[in-house]
Amino acid sequence: MPVGSVLSPSKGIQDHYDRVLHELELFNRERFLTLREGISKIQIGMKADDIIQTMREDPSSSHFTFLRMKEIVDNAIIVELEQNLV
User: How many CB atoms lie within 10 A of CB 81?
Assistant: First the structure.
């Protein structure tokens, strides 16, 4: 930094927190996109799930369809948590 261009302490602090805030915004945007992608994969998985289709068609099991859907979502959440631990 050239002599005479010394930042005041408050300007330096402000610049630091502006950078921190910018990094947090980028992280949150990335996380949002990742979550949206994950939800989309879950939806596609449920649409393609043969068990759900079979359960919907059978009157004796159709009322359990929601439980199967919940199982798919729960499994996806567990996988996501495990990936974030690594």
Answer: 9
